[in-house]
Design a protein that fits this description.
It is a single chain. By secondary structure, the chain is an alpha/beta fold. It has a single domain, classed as Glycoside hydrolase/deacetylase (TIM Barrel), CATH 3.20.20.370. It contains 11 helices and 11 strands. The strands form 3 sheets. Strands 1, 2, 3, 10 and 11 form a 5-stranded parallel β-sheet that branches. Helix 6 links the parallel strand 4 and strand 5.
Length: about 260
């Protein structure tokens, strides 16, 4: 797929129960996971209002049902897409369940999907559940998670399903997803983002709302806690202003629907 002549900046957030510490052996009730996830989403929505930019919210059905008011607030200004039924587990049946819950709680049509932890999902199963596109590929090597260096960096089709990979720079594939954004020097991230916009006509980057609360005492490793809370808010605001001159902000479905037919 050729890039649009007007570069697009696609900001997104994986809106979920805060189960990252549970993955690492900490006992945490669902109520606590949801309290922290909800507090982060409240902060993110406040910040996006201040910055006056749209985003795509990949939301678990579980989160949407726990936080109906937050879901409605997000849907008023942003796109709602699916992040599965729950964050901890997945089966193909969750695709349709999640989409139905998100449509009901948001009042929006739900066209996009992103699998938790960016794991592969059968494209035909995604299509059968009613989605139009997927954004579950990070075209880099991430030790212990995935090796996608042989996959395209820019949007492409898996049969009838449109895949929107997370952005990585041309040639060396410097990653730009949330971990890189938190741990690389700010100037490097901005320059790499600008190069993606100039080369690809597209920048697709994402975070989690829980990154925008204080993570001290969470039990997460330092590379996940780096630049949290208000520091993360300040960094996101600075990032938005730094890339704003190089493109226009869009939700993912708005960008997809503006593309020429395949």
């Amino acid at each position: 797929m050729s890039a649009r002549p007007d570069p697009a900046i696609l900001l997104s957030f994986d809106v979920e129960e805060f189960d990252a510490p549970v993955e690492r052996g900490r006992v945490m009730s669902m109520a606590e996971q949801m309290e922290k996830g909800g507090r982060g989403q409240q902060r993110v929505l406040d910040l996006l209002d201040q910055l006056d930019v749209p985003a795509t919210m990949f939301t678990t059905a579980n989160f949407a049902q726990w936080h109906v008011a937050l879901q409605r607030r997000a849907a008023a200004r942003h796109e709602i897409a699916s992040h599965g039924r729950v964050h901890a587990t997945f089966e193909d049946a969750d695709l349709a369940i999640s989409r139905a819950v998100l449509r009901e709680t948001s009042g929006q049509e739900v066209l996009g999907f992103r699998r938790a932890r960016l794991q592969p999902t059968d494209p035909e199963a995604i299509l059968r559940a009613g989605y139009r596109w997927d954004s579950s590929e990070n075209p880099i090597w991430l030790p212990g998670r995935y090796s996608n260096l042989g996959k395209p960096r820019t949007p492409y089709r898996k049969g009838r399903l449109l895949e929107l990979p997370i952005s990585a720079t041309p040639r060396i594939r410097l990653p730009l997803f949330w971990l890189a954004w938190k741990n690389l020097p700010f100037g490097v991230v901005v320059d790499a983002s600008r190069r993606c916009l100039e080369h690809d006509g597209l920048l697709n980057v994402f975070w989690h709302p829980w990154e925008f609360i204080d993570l001290a005492g969470s039990g997460l490793p330092r590379y996940m806690r780096a630049v949290d809370g208000e520091r993360a808010c300040d960094r996101l605001a600075a990032f938005v202003e730094a890339v704003r001159p190089y493109g226009r902000f869009s939700t993912m479905s708005a960008w997809v629907l503006g593309q020429p037919a395949a």
